[in-house]
Structure formats: C-alpha cells, structure tokens
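pasting input
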Amino acid sequence: MKQIPIHGDALVSPDKPKANLIYKNLGSKLKAFWSFFEGNPPALIGGFLLTLIMTMAVLAPVLASHDPDRRVARSHVEPSAKHFLGSTRSGRDVYSQLLFGAQKTLSVALAAGAIAVFIAIGVGVTAGYMGGRVDSYLNFLTNVFLVFPQLPLLIVLAAFLGQVSSLVITLLLGLTSWPWVARVIRSQTLSLRHKEFVISAEVMGESRWRIILVEILPNLVSIVFGGFLGTTIYAMGAEAGLGILGLGDSTEVSWGSMLYWAQTSSSLFTGAWWEMLAPAMALALTGGALALINMSIDQMSNPKLKTGKHMKLWKKLKREADQRRGLV
Amino acid sequence: MHYIVRQLGFYLTAFLIAISFNFMLPRLMPGDPLDALFSATQGRMDETQMAAIREMYGFMDGSIIEQYLAYLYSIISLDLGPSVLMFPVSVTQVIGQALPWTIFLALGSLIVALIIGISIGTYASYHRSGFFGQVVPPVLAFISNFPYVVTALILFYIFGVQLDILPISYTYDPDLTPGFHWDFILSVIKHAILPMGSMILVGVATWVFNMRNAMINVLGEDYITMAEAKGLSSTRVMTRYAGRNAILPVATAIAMAIGFSFAGSILTEVVFNYQGLGNVLLKGIVARDYPLIQAILLILVVAVLTANFIADLVYVWLDPRISK
C-alpha cells in the first residue's frame, strides 16, 4: 500500500541528518517566540521586567547580602552600600527580604493562578461542551461565586482561621478566584462547539475526551493563558492585601508580610520610606509587567486590537494602492 | 419583565446561600469563637451568664434546623446581637454608621472611573494609530494593575506625607459637626480625594480596555464608513455613532466590577483610616469580634447583590431586547 505523507516531516529526504531538523524546528519556534515581542514595546518591557523579577526570585540565595530572618543592622538604617535598601525597624535587611519575599509571593500568586485556571477549565469546558442541565447548574454556580465579593470572603475566612500560612492562602485564593475565567472559557467553548471541525470529529465517532482535549482545548490556549495571568495579578494583590491586614503569617517573609511590618512600624511617618516603598514598588512592577504581557496576548488572539507597527504596514499598503489608482 | 423576575430570583437564591454560608462558618471552624471571648474574661463568668451570651449570639440549644431558622429570623429582623468590640452597641448600629461611607467610596469611584475610562477608551480606539492610542492604553494597563493597597500606599506617601496637601485619615474633619452645610461637604470631598483617587486609578483601565475592545468591533461596521463618507465631523462619528453603540457590551461588565470595587474599598479604607466598613472589619478582626465580622460580610453581600440588580435594571433600560 502506498504511504501518504501527512506531516511535513515525512517529506524531508532521509539522507539529511535528523539533528538539522531539530535545529530548524527550534529555530522556527524561537522565531515564533520572538515575533510575539517584535515591534511590540509593551510586550518587550513586560517580558524584560518579568524575567528580571523571576531571576531575582530564583537566585535569591545567591544575590541576597544578608539572612532575611536575622537581625543584621540597627533599626531603620538608611539605604547604603552595606544595606542596599536599608533596614526594617527590627533591623532586618530590606534588600534580602525583598529577594526572598519575591519567592514566596510569586509562588503563592502563580500557584493560586494555576489552581484557579484548572478549576475554570474543568467547569467552563464541561458547561460549554455538555450544555443542557449540566450547563445550567454549573453556570448558576459560576454566577453565585461571581456576585460574591471575593476579597471580603477571603478576609473573613482567614480571620476565622487565625493567621494563616501561605499554603492556606494559596488554596483559598485558588478556590475562590476561578469564576470569571470559567465564564470566558464557557462562552468560547460554546462557540467552538458548533464549529465544523468539532461536528466532524463527533460524526467520526471520536470520544468526548478526545474532542475536548484535542479539538477544543488547543483553541482555548490564549484565553486560558490570559486568564492565568489575570488571576495571578489578582492573587498577588490579594496576598498583599491580606498581608497588610495582618491575616497572613507575619513570620514568613513575603511582600505582603513586609508591608504588614512596615505598616505596624508606621515607617512612612517616621521617614523610613524604604521599608514600605520597597515591597510596594516590587508588587507594582510585577503587577504592571504581568498586565503588559496579558495585553499583548489579547492582541495576539484578537489582531484587531493591534496598534503600532502593523497599522503602519497597513497604511503603507493603502498609500501604495492609492498611488497606483492615481488617487494621491 | 420575565428577565427581571429571573434575575431577582437568582439574587435571592444567592443571598440565601450567603446566609447559609455565614451560618455554617463558625460551626465548621475548629474551636468555638465564643471560647475566645470567654477566655478573655478568665472564668469570672458563671455558667448561666455564659449561656445567656451564647443565646444572645444565636448559639442556642435545639436542632441545627431550629438554630438555622432562628438565625434567619434574626437577620430579617436586623437583630444581629451586640458587638464584642464596642460592647453594648449593637452590630446593626456599628454597621449602620460605617456602611454609607463604604457605599460612597465604592460606588463613587466606580462611577467616576467609568466616565473617565469610557471617554479615554473611546478616544484611544478612534485614534488608535496616533500617539495617544498607542501610548496611553499600555501605560494605563501598567499602572492599573498595581495591587489596590500599593496604589493607595504610593498616593498616601506622595500626597499625604511628602507634599502634605491632602488629609490621610478620617472621613471628615473631626472638629466639624456632620450636617448639610458647606464646610462639612467640602471636608468630606477633601478627605475622599485620596482614597477615591487610588481606587479610580486602579479601576479606570478596565473600562478603557472594555470600551476599546467594543469600539474596535463597532468601528468595522458599515454605518461608520457611511457616516464618515457623509462628511460628518470625526467627533460626531466617534461619540454618536461608534461610542453610543459600543457602550452596551461595556455595561455588562459593570455588574462584575461592583464586587471588585467594594473589595477595593475595604483595603483602601484600611490604608487611609477611612471610617467605613473596611476599617470596622479590621478592628473586628483584631478584637476577634466574630459576630461583627460575619455581619459585615453579609451586609457586603447584600450591597453587592443590590448593586448588581440595579445594574441589571439599567441594562434592561439600555437594551430593551433582553427583557423579551
């Protein structure tokens, strides 16, 4: 029987070394990766900031100048060469705390985002694909979660549990912040469900699982990723909020607990701005960077939103066309 | 009409779920919230006194269903027992004093952010290849995604501490007697600028982006091209033709934003020591005043549900098609 080549790989002549192909694939992957950033200053700035923050968090043990949990200076020492960002009232090095705090805060936010997105995919895709009664139950559940003020709910839960560890905060955040992502995923699944490729897969007798995993999910990637980033930003803000209210575990070093200690030592009034502004600026830059990337993902999934270079290209083509027609 | 009735049914169900959750919460948590209260008195209370207090807070004997019905009754009759924090004063009274300020902060900032955001979004999308359209949205996206507390703290530091031009504590000058006179109103506005400003800064980008996305869809329509071809001024096309039709999908997002706005208000109040529910909530948490904490959660749920229902009514008014 004659073999029909389906994939492009099969067309590559066999005498070419395989490694070359991998290089080529890697090259095109990198190119696709780069095209996301090319001519897109917001994505570049966001990506750069995020890479920087992530690197600092991962390399915290190397980069830190002092032990974040130990008293290493006098109270409220000003920023200097020895203590880049000064010291807290209890004599901890703010710079080192910032680095280790990044680890805790980012892992809480990212994990909460991941949990929320997993629940959202489960609820959203099931509701959108199954339809009928399942959909109306799940939709009701989503709407109920959506109208409840989530942060007050979290605050009350945390208050009942006493000072909660970052693990509990992660779980609480993940379990309460999924509904808006679920809603977007549901409506997108609903519209995909009636597309020809899904119907043809159904007619061919593919199993439900295969249709959901292979036909539908890959088309939701940009929405899922956007939802993940959005939830991560929200979770980071909520962690900081719970922290400053004193509901987090104030013995753990995180940006939230740093805010708490800076607030209780009223550092802004005593002139020790560095204790408060260092974690505040770190939170601000991380949130902003994530938002810029999120915005660029939106533009990728909906090219109509694009501005800048692409508009210039369109204008150039229009001008040329006008010239050909003798309009200009 | 059918739509409104259905929404009303949904909100009532949601409210019932919130009440049930509130009822379950202290019964599911490890330990008894009242134990904390009793341990503070260090055994100076005898059994009958403790039983009386227990009953006052709704922890009465009887089956769980009887307890639940009694709890429902106490909520409907607005009798939520006394506050632990400010003892003889009732929870209802404490909340009654703080709630108007929170509503003022949450809804006021939401409305201002809506107006500013929709204006910027309309302009930025209509002129999206220009400087404004390219620079303002990403800058706003960056700033607006600072966590609520961080924006509040930065404004607090710049305007309240460094420049020292705006008050950073209380809802109005404590020397003034509240009333409907000019000094008082001016003082309230002055005290609201920073907390409201920080919430607007956080909220505005949502509307810019919602409006921009809606506008860009509308701008592709034929009637826009037609309006431009007729030679109408670009302002008229932007506002009357495109903007007006783009507002509709934006309005659906308002309902969701209300909850966020109330949550933001809670955090902002703590930073600016604004005498709203957030501040009372924080004091309640520190004093372990569980009846007060729960009542605040409940009243926030009611406020958000009511605001959502009003948003639904506005939506029906904007788009009569959905009520059919």
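fyi Chain A touches chain B through 56 residues (CB under 8 Å).
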